[in-house]
């Protein structure tokens, strides 16, 4: 029983750290897309502002340790950029 508990705990810790490292990668993808003039030209100003806001909120959530929220916000920004 104790072995199963420790195994579950180890898996949870590994998963959390892997999830946390995903945030900077997603932010980098979004930043790269925002620097692409062709990709940005396809968006209206309201959508572009929303993408920038989602990206900023995703970074804030990452820094606060809320990686689930960060990934959700960053994935939404990627979707609005047409990256999905």
Largest sheet: none
Distance between the termini: 42 Å
Mean pLDDT: 84
Find the structural class using helix and strand composition: mainly alpha
Residue runs with pLDDT of under 50 for 5 or more positions: none
H-E string: HHHH
Q: So what's the overall shape?
A: elongated
How many H/I helices?
Answer: 4
Portion in strands: under 5%
Radius of gyration from the alpha-carbon trace, in angstroms: 16 Å
List how many beta strands DSSP finds.
Answer: 0
The helix fraction, in percent, is over 70%
List the SSEs and their pairings.
Blueprint: H1 2-35, H2 37-41, H3 45-63, H4 67-80
Helix pairs in contact: 1-3, 1-4, 3-4
Structural descriptors:
84 residues, mainly alpha
Question: What features would you describe in this structure?
Answer:
The chain is mainly alpha-helical and 84 residues long. It is 86% helix and 0% strand. It has four helices and no strands. It has helices spanning 2-35, 37-41, 45-63, 67-80. α3 packs antiparallel against α4. The chain is elongated, with a radius of gyration of 16 Å.
Task: Give a quick rundown of the structure.
This protein has 84 residues and is an all-alpha fold. The chain has helices spanning 2-35, 37-41, 45-63, 67-80.
């Amino acid at each position: 029983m104790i072995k199963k508990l420790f195994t579950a705990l180890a898996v949870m810790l590994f998963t959390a750290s892997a999830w946390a490292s995903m945030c900077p990668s997603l932010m980098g993808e979004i930043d790269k897309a925002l620097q692409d003039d062709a990709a940005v030209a396809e968006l209206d100003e309201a959508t572009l502002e929303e993408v920038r806001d989602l990206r900023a909120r995703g970074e804030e959530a990452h820094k606060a340790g809320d990686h689930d929220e960060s990934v959700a916000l960053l994935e939404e920004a990627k979707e609005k950029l047409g990256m999905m």
